[in-house]
Structures are given as C-alpha cells and as structure tokens.
Design goal:
It is built from 15 helices and eleven strands. It folds into two domains: 260 residues, EreA/ChaN-like  fold; 99 residues, no CATH class. The strands form two sheets. Strands 1, 2, 3, 4, 5, 6, 7, 8 and 11 form a nine-stranded mixed β-sheet that branches. With 422 residues, the chain is of the alpha/beta class. InterPro entries: Emycin_Estase, Hydrolase/PRTase-associated, UCP036794_erythomycin. It comes from Rufibacter radiotolerans.
Amino acid sequence: MPYHRLENKADLDILLEDIGDARIVMLGEASHGTSEYYGWRTAISKRLIEEKGFTFIAVEGDWPDCYQVNKFIRGSCKAGTKVSDVLKNFNRWPTWMWGNWEIAALVEWLKEHNDRPNTTNQIGFYGLDVYSLWDSLNRIMKYLEQKDGKAMKAAKEAFKCFEPYSSDPQEYARAVAYVSEDCEDEVISMLQELGKREQTEPLNSEAVFDAEQNALVAVNAERYYKAMIRGGGSSWNVRDEHMMETLNRLLEFHGPDAKAIIWEHNTHVGDARFTDMARAGMVNIGQLAREKYGRENVYLTGFGSYEGSVIAGEAWGAPMKKMEVPPARAGSWEEWLHSLGATDKLLLSRELRDIDEMRQLIAHRAIGVVYDPNREAYGNYVPTIIPERYDAFLYLDETEALRPFIVKTKEKEPPEMYPANE
C-alpha cells in the first residue's frame, strides 16, 4: 500500500501540494485528548495560513468561549491578559479539549502572527458548536444592555422563557419535550430582531456578527436539547447542520476570498456517507461541505494511531483521566497500518482508490470524550471506506495524552453527544 513518511514538518510538503486550491481544509482527530493530533494540526494550520492565505480557524468548541480567543489574538483583550487566562474560559466539560498547553501554543502563534507589522491577513478563531445556550443568551443581553427597541425586548422575552430552568438546558428539554409550550418562538424572534439591527450598524461589524451568532446558537441549541431528550440520531444532525450554517456565515462574513481551516473529530470531518453513520440517517459537516462547495474545494484530513495514551473521562462529567490506549484490534485500519511498519505515515486517498481492499468498509478507531479501553474488542470503531471518507490520512503509530489545564467545570451535567465514540 502506498504511503509517505511522516517524520517532520518538511514531510507535509506533499500534503500541501495535494490540498492545492481547496477553500476549506478540515483536520480531524481520532480522540479529543491526544497531543500529537493537536501538534500536527497546528503545523498544518500554520503552513496553510502562511503559504496559502487561509483566513480563520473554526473548531469544535462553543462560540462564546472561542470568541474570547478571537479577541485575544486580534489584540482586543485588556492589557496583561495571558493566553492561560483566555483558555480557562473553556469551563464546560470536557474542559481539556481546548484548555490545554497544545492549544495555548497555537493561540500564542496566532497572536504573534496578527501582531506582525504590516500583516494584511488577520487570522480569526471561532467556535462551531451548539451547546452554549445560556452563555449565548447572556452575551446577547450584554450586547443589548445599552440599547432600546424591539431587539432588546425580544432578548428579554427569550431570557425570561428559559429562566425557570435554572440554567440547565437538559432540565428545560425534559420539561418541554412532550408538550407544545416551549421557548422556540422566543429565540427565533430574538434572532430575527437582531438581524434587523444589522441594517443600522456599521458594515462588517464583528460585534454585530457575534451577537447574531449567539442568537443563532440559542435557536439551534433549543432545537438540539429537545431532540437529544427525544432520543435517536436527530440531535446529531441538528448539531452538525448548525456547524455547517456557522461555517457558511463565517465564509460570507470574511468575503469571497475567505479560506477556512476546521478542527473537529474524525466523526464530524470524515464524510458520513462512507461510514455506517449513513445507514442511521446521520450527516456531518464534512459531507455537507462537500455537497455545498464541491469536493474539489473541500479537503478532508483524518487522523489515527495504533496505541499510546489519551485524556478522557470514564463517564459524562467525570474527572479527566490519563488512560491507556491499547493496540488497535485485529483487522482494523490502524492495525493494518501498524503491520506495514511501526512508523508514522501520510496517506493520500488519490493513491489508494484503485486498490480493491480500500473499497470496502474497514474498522476505524474513534475515541470519544468518554472512553473505556476495555471496549476495544467490540466498540470504539466506525466502519469506514477510508479513501472516500477522507482525502488524506495521518497515521501516528504511538501517541501521548495531551497536557490539559486544571479548570473547574461550571456544569454538573454536560450534554450528551451521539454517537458515543465521538
């Protein structure tokens, strides 16, 4: 099977060449707690920014917290603010996903890039996720607190509607899941009124965009939590469709020459049509982006490893823990690559598609924020047609857990995610 060595940053040359003129590059990960995935994504992102003029990074994180990173790298935080101060805003479980030293190094580099004299390509950093219902409502209220009119009235009505549920989105969802009275109309009205305000604000105002995005989060989070309580895979689709809507808005906001780097789990990045997710009626942002912008404009990169260690939790909301990742199970994609030699490898899908063995579903490891190494024999794997799901794959034979900050969580009961191995 053809592959390329992956030993240092220079070995990424062939990947950058293969990416070509793609407008959207998605960088996956097989877990949310592996240092090397963050390190290689950082190396690729730097080269995309410096060599191909990419405009922003958007990640599988909450919009309000990521927007604080955006302000920091653009020099809008108060003097003396440190990167660790900013990343400690990521206090919703799992805090380690973005509150870690690997991300701190990336954020410091982004700030240094934006601070360079005569820099014309100011990089942004944004969150694509949908969980931040109460944080987004609070941000909207703060934005509108000095303003009068229908937008403020609509925001107050939305806030009032959610108040009885003690800032717990799952309590809200359980209360309204099977009744006709909910807060859907209130959040939609708030979004509409904020959209009308844009006409009176300066063009390309990031403050306006931020407020509108928080309103969009509130609308889709309300839908997400209701769908989650009702069960099935519909909440997954609400979430990834929100991510795609946010990506579309960011590209439009940054103009026709905007180019996006996306950091998410493989289960979001890799085209769902070439996994067993399709049979369950599930879509993801990788699939949706290919369908909207064309495969030639969207480059999907997967990651995986054979063994090592990872940061994860034993249950939802459990303390983070360094866990062993055992050798990949027999017959899996990762075990196959390991059998070719215990070296890191870069694979390009265009070189694999004519190989018969590559045209079948192969078990491909996926570790979520909740992980049990003892399930390796029967879980933690997604059947995948590798060269169709991705355009490239970075295989790292042995990996280490990332280095998290210690951050106190603010939610006792984090939202569930579906499927469990994301």
